Amino acid sequence: MSKGTLYGVGIGPGDPELMTLKAARLIAAAPVIAFFAKKGRTGHARRIVEGRLHAEVLELRLEYPFTTEISVADPAYLADMGVFYEACARDLAAHLDEGRDVAVLCEGDPFFYGSFMYLFDRLKDHYTHEVIPGVTGMAGCWTSAGAPMTHGDDVLSVLPGTLDEDGLALRLAQCDAAVIMKVGRNLPKIRRALARAGLMERALYVERGTMDDQHIERLADKRDEPAPYFSIVLVPGRQRPR
Amino acid sequence: MSKGTLYGVGIGPGDPELMTLKAARLIAAAPVIAFFAKKGRTGHARRIVEGRLHAEVLELRLEYPFTTEISVADPAYLADMGVFYEACARDLAAHLDEGRDVAVLCEGDPFFYGSFMYLFDRLKDHYTHEVIPGVTGMAGCWTSAGAPMTHGDDVLSVLPGTLDEDGLALRLAQCDAAVIMKVGRNLPKIRRALARAGLMERALYVERGTMDDQHIERLADKRDEPAPYFSIVLVPGRQRPR
C-alpha cells in the first residue's frame, strides 16, 4: 500500500474567500484534515473552512496544551511543546501510513510563523509532501486598513513585540515600514519604541483584520490596555513622490 | 449615473491556482481589467488570468515607458514615471466615470511593492475602491524552495538589493530571516554582505518561484552572473528546537 501525502495548506487571513483556488480544491478533496486549536475553542482555522470539507472527512483536532500564553523563553514551554508536536506528528503519520492524504489547515501562510512547520520538520523526510502558500495575516491587516505598505526600495521589518524596548527601537530606526506582531501585553513597550524611532504618527493598530469584527485605529489614539492575540501594529512605509 | 468601483486585485505569485477565490470571482465579473506590462511583452499579470476573464471584457494595457531598468535615484526616472502614472490614472478614471468597474491585476499583493499603489494614491479619494490581498511573490518562492522561513520570535527583514553593501550587512546582522529582492545586477554585492553577516550558508537563490520554469539553488553554488528580474535571495530563519 502506498503512503498518503502530507499537505500544508495556507488558508489565508480569516475571510474564507481569501483562500486560494488550490487550497479550496485540496481541502474539498482531503480524506483527513488536521488543525490546531486552543482548548475549548472551535479553532480559528476550522471556522475558515466551514462548508468546504468532503462529506466523509475525518477531522484531527490538535489541541494546544496551554490555555494561556507562556513565555517561549521558559524551558518548560519548549519541552511541553516538543512533546505535543511529537504526539501530533504521530497522529498524522498513522493516517499517512494507512494511505490517506492529510491536509493540515494553516492560518495565513504555512512557512510564515506557523505551527505547521514543527510537523513538517518531523514528517518531511518520511512522506511525500506539498505546501500551498497563503495570504498572510499581515497582508490581510494592511489591506483592511487601506494602508499601502511598501514602495520601491523600502526596507520592511517584521518584529515580534516580545523584543526588548532597545531591540525594537534599534530595528525600527533602520526600516521604512514595519509590522509588529505578538502585541498582546507588549503594547506600552511597543509604543515607547515607536516614539523613540519617530514612527508613532504613522503607526496603525489592527485587531482581527479581514474578520467580521475587525477594528482599526491610529495607535496614537489607542488606549493602553492588553491587546488580543490577533492584533498587530503596522507602520506603513514612506509615501514616495511619483 | 453612478461611478464604477476601482478594484486592486492581488493575483498571487505566478501559478494561476494561487489566486484567491475572491480574486477569481472579481476578475470573472469585471467589465474592464487593467494591467501593467513591459513594452513588447504579454504581461506577466495578464498571463496569470488567461482563461478567467469575462467574454466581453475591455482590456487596458498599461505599458511601462522604459524597456530597461533605470535607477530610481535618477530624477528623470521619477519624473517620467510620474507622467506615466498620471496618464494611467486618467485612463482608468474615464471608465470609472462611465460607471464601469475596473479591476487592476496586481502580481503578488497590491500593497506590497506594487505599481498599483501609484494609481490607488491618485484615485482613492474620488472613487469607491476595494483592495484584495494576494499571496506574495516571496511566499511563493519560500514555498517552492521547501524552506520554512520564520519561527516563533524570528525577526524578518525584507531588503532591496539596491542598498549599499554596508547598509545590507548592517541590517542582515540584526535579523534572523531575510528576503532580498531586486537581485538583478546586485548579486556580487549581496553575496559579500551575506558573508559579512555570516549568513551565506543558509542563503538560497530562487528564480521565477511557482512558475513552470522555476530554478532554485544554494546561493553559495550560484555563478556570479546578472540575475533576472523575478529572482530573489532567501535566508530562512534559524531552526528552533521544539
Account of the 3D structure:
- Two copies of one chain form a homodimer.
- The longest helix of chain A is centred in the middle third of the chain and has 23 residues, at 75-97.
- In chain A, strands 3-2-4-1-5 form a five-stranded parallel sheet, with helices on both faces.
- The termini of chain A are far apart.
- Chain A has two domains: 6-135, Tetrapyrrole methylase, N-terminal domain (Cobalt-precorrin-4 Transmethylase, domain 1, 3-Layer(aba) Sandwich); 138-235, Methyltransferase, Cobalt-precorrin-4 Transmethylase, Domain 2.
- The model of chain A has no long low-confidence stretch (mean pLDDT 92).
- Chain A is globular and about 60 Å long.
- In chain A, 48% of the residues are buried.
- By secondary structure, chain A is an alpha/beta fold.
- Chain A has helices spanning 21-29, 44-48, 75-97, 116-123, 137-144, 165-172, 187-196; strands spanning 6-10, 32-37, 58-63, 102-106, 129-132, 156-160, 177-181, 204-207, 215-218, 231-235.
- In chain A, helix 3 crosses helix 4 and helix 6 (165-172) packs across helix 7.
- Chain A has seven helices and ten strands.
- Chains A and B meet through helix 1, helix 3, helix 4, helix 5 and strand 6 of A and helix 1, helix 3, helix 4, helix 5 and strand 6 of B.
